[in-house]
């Protein structure tokens, strides 16, 4: 009899965690496992890429209330959900005042999820393993019937600023906390040493065949108005990705006489800030935002150098994707950078400070032999991480 696996995910919009989930779903042995996927919302560019073997469970409108504006909920038949969201906002504010803590995205998710939970129906079915693949795992704990329950962690936990009491309540009821890299596991244990025995590492899996096929899609004029070398970054327009400093870094590169155009694919709340920084640095012709792309792989394949200038990461899926497509890669020296690549072998780790970052990029761009060596070394590695799937199978009872 096939073992039953359930994944829980908010949606399938473009993002690193969503790409990671697709890689995992594309690698599972469906002759031995029956896989279901529960989405809070049946939305997102990646919906059509979910493997046909996966049973996408029917939508439950109640779960869609996580992202609906509070005012809209209060003026609808779902007014109770609006009241719950208001209570979440109020409770978090009181907590932060009392504990003298700052709010954050993760903390907000904790309070919203806790307040909405009593109004959410159970997810149908019985499973051998349930996996909360992104976000706070309380729905998995309280609304899923599964023998084993796993919460997935995609980031450096020390930057999340959670309500630790709530985290401890939840993780005490979880069987495993799976982080996407060893440094991420270590960071989690640093915050919650009492859960050391539950903390495991399962790295991102990637479907290399799908990626390479998508990279070969014919696109005309991928890089409009390009001048010199093409630099590329992909990710959400958020504080973590540090794209707001790209204009200053790019300006320093240009001042050395190296001609480059730096393109950024993505979307998010900091687009206005990035555009402002581009204007302030007079980089309108050299730093170009390409916006959201459901298929960024032709762009990665077409660039001269892939750069991930992040302030922090769990394990950037896009860096692995660039390596699969045999691109030289540069990443900044964020806390978990050493787990991302072999510095000097299949990529380069550069300082976080803008000027130093720019100078290291210039050094690399001037050294064609070194660029080619980085490319050559990507052919020697298997970046799919298919062996990580055995770690997941081993959790299933």
Automatic annotation (TrEMBL):
Keywords: Glycosyltransferase, Transferase. CDD domains: GT4_GT28_WabH-like. This is Probable poly(Glycerol-phosphate) alpha-glucosyltransferase. Pfam families: Glycos_transf_1. It comes from the Bacteria. GO terms for molecular function: poly(glycerol-phosphate) alpha-glucosyltransferase activity. It is an enzyme of class 2 (transferase). Residues 217-380 form the Glycosyl transferase family domain. InterPro entries: Glyco_trans_1. The gene is tagE_2. Its EC number is 2.4.1.52. The keyword Secreted does not apply. The keyword Glycosyltransferase applies. SUPFAM superfamilies: UDP-Glycosyltransferase/glycogen phosphorylase (SSF53756).
């Amino acid at each position: 009899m096939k073992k039953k696996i359930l994944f829980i995910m908010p949606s399938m919009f473009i993002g690193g965690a969503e790409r990671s989930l697709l890689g995992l779903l594309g690698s599972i042995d469906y002759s031995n496992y029956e896989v279901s996927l529960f989405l809070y919302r049946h939305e997102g560019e990646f919906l059509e890429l979910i493997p046909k073997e996966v049973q996408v469970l029917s939508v439950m409108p109640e779960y869609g209330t996580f992202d609906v504006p509070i005012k809209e909920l209060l003026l609808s038949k779902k007014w109770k959900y609006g009241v719950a969201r208001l209570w979440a906002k109020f409770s978090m504010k009181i907590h932060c005042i009392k504990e003298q803590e700052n709010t954050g995205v993760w903390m907000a998710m904790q309070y919203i999820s806790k307040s909405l939970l009593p109004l959410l129906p159970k997810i149908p079915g019985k499973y051998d393993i349930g996996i909360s693949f992104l976000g706070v795992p309380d729905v998995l704990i309280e609304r899923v019937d599964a023998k084993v329950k796993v919460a997935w962690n995609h980031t450096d936990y020390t930057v999340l600023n959670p309500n630790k009491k709530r985290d401890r309540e939840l993780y005490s009821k979880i069987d495993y906390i799976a982080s996407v890299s060893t440094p991420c596991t270590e960071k989690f244990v640093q915050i919650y040493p009492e859960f050391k025995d539950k903390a495991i590492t399962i790295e991102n899996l990637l479907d290399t065949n799908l990626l390479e096929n998508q990279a070969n899609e014919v696109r005309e004029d991928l890089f409009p108005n390009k001048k010199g070398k093409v630099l590329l970054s992909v990710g959400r327009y958020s504080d973590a990705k540090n794209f707001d400093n790209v204009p200053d870094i790019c300006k320093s590169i240009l001042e050395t006489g190296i001609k480059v155009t730096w393109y950024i694919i993505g979307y998010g709340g900091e687009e206005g800030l990035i555009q402002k920084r581009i204007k302030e640095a007079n980089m309108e012709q050299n730093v170009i935002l390409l916006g959201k792309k459901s298929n960024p792989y032709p762009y990665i394949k077409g660039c001269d150098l892939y750069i991930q200038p992040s302030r922090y990461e769990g394990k950037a899926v896009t860096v692995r994707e660039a390596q699969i497509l045999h691109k030289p890669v540069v990443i900044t020296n964020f806390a978990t950078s050493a787990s991302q690549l072999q510095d000097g072998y299949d990529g380069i780790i550069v300082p976080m400070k803008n000027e130093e970052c720019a100078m290291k990029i210039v050094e690399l761009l001037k050294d064609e032999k070194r660029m080619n060596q980085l490319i050559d070394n990507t052919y020697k590695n298997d970046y799919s991480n298919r062996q990580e799937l055995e770690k997941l199978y081993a959790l299933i009872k």
